[in-house]
C-alpha cells in the first residue's frame, strides 16, 4: 500500500510538498503539471516546477517526486519527457484530466478524454522516446462529459505503454463535486493489466479504507484531504502499522505546520505576492478539519503585507 500526494497546480508546490512530506505518511509526490505546447521547455521551467529533481529527486524528507507533463502534441511531449530523463527523472507522468478551460481549449488535459486514439498516440510516442528503464505513468479522469469512453481511454493509455494509471474518479464536467465514483476504479482495475491508483474525495481515514475496499486498489492518491488534514497520511500509515485509529492533530499542532509553511514561503518569495497568496490559499482549505482556520483566515483576509500576516499568525500560536 502507498499514499501519493496529488499534484495540485498553484497549490502543491515545492514548499507545500516539503511541509506535508515532513509530517509523514506520504510515499510519493507528483509535481504540478508542466504545460508543453510545441517547444522544448527551458531548464528554468523544470527547475521552477520540480526543484527536487535537481537535488536528489526527493523532498528534504526523502519522498520521491514524479514530474507531470501536460499537452496534446506527441512529439513535443516526447522531447520534453526525454529532457526530464536527462535531468534525472526515472518516471514521467502525463496528465489527461485537467479541466481548466485554457488547457482544454488547446486540446490538452481532460479534452483528450474525447479522443482515445490521440491518447494512445501520445503515450506510444513518448514511450518510444524514453529508455526502457524509465516508467511512464498517466493520470486520467473518467471522461469528459460521461463515462462512455472510460474503459477505451484506460485501454488506450495502457496499450500505448503506460505502466501505472492514476484515476480521478469523476468526469471533467463533474469538476470537484462529490461524489467520486469509486466503483469505476474497480472496473478500470479489472480491465487493465497495470496497477491503478485510486483518487478522489478521500478526506478521512474511513474514506481511505472505503476507497480501498470499493476499488480494490492498493495505492491511493490524496489531494484536498491532505491540505485540510495535513497529518491524514501519517494517521493512515499509523493505522497500517498498528491497527489503531489515532485522533487528528490539534489546532495548536496544525499551527506549527502553518508557521513552518509561511516561513518557507517568505524565505522563497519575500517582497513578492507569493507568501501572502499562498497562506490565503491554504487556510480556507483547512476549514474542513479545523473551524479555527476560518476565523484565522478572516483575520488575515484583507492584509496585504507579509509582516502583518506574520503578526496575526504569531498571536494565534500563542493563544
Ligand atoms: C487546485 C487544483 C489543482 C490541481 N492541479 C492538478 C495538476 O496539476 N495535475 C493533476 O493531475 N491533477 C491536478 N488536480 C487534481 C488533483 O490531483 C486530484 O485529482 C483531485 O483534486 C481529486 O483528488 P482529491 O479529492 O483527493 O482532492 C488539481 C486539483 C485542484 C483542486
Automatic annotation (TrEMBL):
<dbReference type="InterPro" id="IPR032886">
    <property type="entry name" value="DusC"/>
</dbReference>
<dbReference type="InterPro" id="IPR035587">
    <property type="entry name" value="DUS-like_FMN-bd"/>
</dbReference>
<keyword id="KW-0547">Nucleotide-binding</keyword>
<dbReference type="GO" id="GO:0010181">
    <property type="term" value="F:FMN binding"/>
</dbReference>
<keyword id="KW-0820">tRNA-binding</keyword>
<feature type="binding site">
    <location>
        <position position="139"/>
    </location>
    <ligand>
        <name>FMN</name>
    </ligand>
</feature>
<dbReference type="GO" id="GO:0000049">
    <property type="term" value="F:tRNA binding"/>
</dbReference>
<feature type="binding site">
    <location>
        <position position="68"/>
    </location>
    <ligand>
        <name>FMN</name>
    </ligand>
</feature>
<keyword id="KW-0521">NADP</keyword>
<keyword id="KW-0560">Oxidoreductase</keyword>
<feature type="binding site">
    <location>
        <begin position="223"/>
        <end position="224"/>
    </location>
    <ligand>
        <name>FMN</name>
    </ligand>
</feature>
<feature type="binding site">
    <location>
        <position position="168"/>
    </location>
    <ligand>
        <name>FMN</name>
    </ligand>
</feature>
<feature type="site" description="Interacts with tRNA; defines subfamily-specific binding signature">
    <location>
        <position position="301"/>
    </location>
</feature>
<dbReference type="InterPro" id="IPR001269">
    <property type="entry name" value="DUS_fam"/>
</dbReference>
<comment type="similarity">
    <text>Belongs to the Dus family. DusC subfamily.</text>
</comment>
<keyword id="KW-0288">FMN</keyword>
<feature type="site" description="Interacts with tRNA; defines subfamily-specific binding signature">
    <location>
        <position position="280"/>
    </location>
</feature>
<feature type="active site" description="Proton donor">
    <location>
        <position position="98"/>
    </location>
</feature>
<feature type="site" description="Interacts with tRNA; defines subfamily-specific binding signature">
    <location>
        <position position="278"/>
    </location>
</feature>
<dbReference type="GO" id="GO:0050660">
    <property type="term" value="F:flavin adenine dinucleotide binding"/>
</dbReference>
<feature type="site" description="Interacts with tRNA; defines subfamily-specific binding signature">
    <location>
        <position position="35"/>
    </location>
</feature>
<protein>
    <recommendedName>
        <fullName>tRNA-dihydrouridine(16) synthase</fullName>
        <ecNumber>1.3.1.-</ecNumber>
    </recommendedName>
</protein>
<keyword id="KW-0285">Flavoprotein</keyword>
<comment type="function">
    <text>Catalyzes the synthesis of 5,6-dihydrouridine (D), a modified base found in the D-loop of most tRNAs, via the reduction of the C5-C6 double bond in target uridines. Specifically modifies U16 in tRNAs.</text>
</comment>
<feature type="site" description="Interacts with tRNA">
    <location>
        <position position="95"/>
    </location>
</feature>
<dbReference type="InterPro" id="IPR042270">
    <property type="entry name" value="DusC_C"/>
</dbReference>
<dbReference type="GO" id="GO:0017150">
    <property type="term" value="F:tRNA dihydrouridine synthase activity"/>
</dbReference>
<comment type="similarity">
    <text>Belongs to the dus family.</text>
</comment>
<keyword id="KW-0819">tRNA processing</keyword>
<feature type="site" description="Interacts with tRNA">
    <location>
        <position position="176"/>
    </location>
</feature>
<feature type="binding site">
    <location>
        <begin position="199"/>
        <end position="201"/>
    </location>
    <ligand>
        <name>FMN</name>
    </ligand>
</feature>
<dbReference type="Pfam" id="PF01207">
    <property type="entry name" value="Dus"/>
</dbReference>
<keyword id="KW-0694">RNA-binding</keyword>
<dbReference type="InterPro" id="IPR018517">
    <property type="entry name" value="tRNA_hU_synthase_CS"/>
</dbReference>
<feature type="domain" description="DUS-like FMN-binding">
    <location>
        <begin position="5"/>
        <end position="285"/>
    </location>
</feature>
<dbReference type="InterPro" id="IPR013785">
    <property type="entry name" value="Aldolase_TIM"/>
</dbReference>
